[in-house]
Amino acid sequence: MTRPYRSCPGFSLIDTLLGSVVLVIAVLGTGVYRYQSMLCAQRADKWRTAATVAQLLCQTWVGVQGVDTYDPVSSLSPGISISSSAGPSGADGFSPLGSYQISLNGDTYFATLSWIDVQSGLRALNVIVAWAQNKRGSIACADTDKSFALTTYYLTP
Predict the structure, then answer these.
(1) Is 58 domain-assigned?
(2) Number of domains in the chain
(3) What ranges in the chain are assigned the alpha helix state H?
């Protein structure tokens, strides 16, 4: 007497393939997410560093009473790698003070300082910092694609 064929409970080949596809999609999605979040973190770090550089330049300039002869190379060297260089274009209507190249954490930033006397006894100090978002190391000012501007005011005597 022959017994009829009965299927055993379990997974078929189709079930296994579908499970594998879902697993591969999940792993690839997680990898892409981690890569994109790492890039965003690096971009945010560069942005934060540029803002810190702009604030440092503004505050040291205010510290010397906003004079139009301020030289950040002599004020900030040797603590920061800074030198005179080409920089981003200054703010419209402001008198240019100078442009500088700043190297921090393996990245290169370019800064331009300018000023204007808004009224008698009030001077606006402007700093524009530019950097290349997706490049590291030594770059030229023409390679920059992001910038940050900061203006502070100083009451002159």
Answers:
(1) yes
(2) 1
(3) 13-63, 72-76
pLDDT band at 6 (very low <50, low <70, confident <90, very high): low
Residue 141, domain extent: 13-155
The answer on pLDDT for 156 being more than 90 is no
User: Do residues 136 and 126 lie in contact, with contact meaning Cβ atoms separated by under 8 Å?
Assistant: no
Higher pLDDT, 3 or 23: 23
pLDDT at residue 37 greater than cutoff 80: yes
Compute CA distances 23 → 11, 26, 52, whole Å.
Answer: 16, 5, 43
In a domain, residue 6? The reply is: no
The per-residue pLDDT for 7 is: 65
Residues 147-152: contacts with CB under 8 Å, at least 24 apart: 147/50, 147/88, 148/47, 148/50, 148/51, 148/54, 149/54, 149/91, 150/51, 150/54, 150/55, 150/58, 150/126, 151/91, 151/124, 151/125, 151/126, 151/127, 152/58, 152/59, 152/62, 152/124, 152/125
Please state, in angstroms and rounded to a whole number, the distance separating the CA atoms of residues 71 and 63. Answer: 12
Q: What's residue 24's pLDDT?
A: 94
Q: In whole angstroms, give the CA distance from residue 76 to residue 6.
A: 84
- Taking alpha carbons only, the member of 99, 100, 150 closest to residue 126 is 150
